[in-house]
Amino acid sequence: MPLKGRRARDFHARISMLVTCPQCQFARELPEDKIPARAQVATCPKCKHKFRFRELPPEEAAPDQEIPAPPPPAPDQLLPEGDIWDRLGAAAPEERPGQAPADNPFAADPDQPQVDVPFERLDQFGFFPGLYQTLRRILFNPQLFFEAMPLRGLGRPLAFAVLLGEFQIVFQLLWSMTGALGESPETAQYGLGLALAAAVVLGPLFLSVFLFLETAIFHFCLILFRSGSKGFEGTFRVLAYSNAPLILSCIPVVGPLLGYFWSLSLTVIGARRLHGASLWATLGAFALFIGIVLAVMGFMYYVAATVPTAGK
Hints:
It is built from nine helices and five strands, in the order αβββββαααααααα. The protein is mainly alpha-helical. It has helices spanning about 5-15, 120-125, 125-140, 140-145, 155-180, 185-225, 230-240, 255-275, 280-310, and strands spanning about 15-20, 25-30, 40-45, 50, 85-90. Helix 6 (about 185-225) packs across helix 9 and helix 8 (about 255-275) packs across helix 9. It folds into two domains: about 15-90, no CATH class; about 120-310, no CATH class.
């Protein structure tokens, strides 16, 4: 028997959707019966960022639909604190007649909403808040982070990766010195000072070179599996920001190990989301990448083990 009157309204009001802005993280529960059936994009009135909040089948999605804003309240009427989702619309941008496609093959899809990386907008967020927001988004919402990440150069992603790499090196030195029980305090402090000096001076150089080599190998593997649609820059940004779990190096013993495997999983998620590749193609490219890296490391270990023997 169908529900009628007030009972029907109460039933539909209980079916709600949590809509979260990826830019400022403002969240609001909206009753689904209040959301237009073909709406896909919400405009956050807090930060004015427009983003896709759900996917609809092609036959249900409307290409250009703008939901009118509700009428303004009376001067003496107070708005509820959470009622600031003021517009819902379709994701497709307005098409201009005769508009030519972009010359850049790696240009962003106009239908794909983009969200700035806080670490790349330190003028707006500040250093520590920007670093914290970037780490939080990568670690706890990597799918949305990489899918909405714009391609805006290599400098800030490189700085992010070097910063996290230096953080890991420093804490590894500290934990290793804590376990050096057979050394005198003077010797331990002397060795720690030399290691820290070397990490500060040479660490950024080695980390940068390693990141570029790592990107070249991984992007080559992605090309073989036809999964590198965003180019070298896209792969570089994925690998750079996948270093976020290195923050766990501050936890002794288990922190670096957990961070390493977490970083590998973020690499797969980021490559798939940013390049828009299939899961199996991304996994195939990643498996080939790991195989090449292990082969190179094995060869270097073999050379290091046999060269001293040959010199005797």
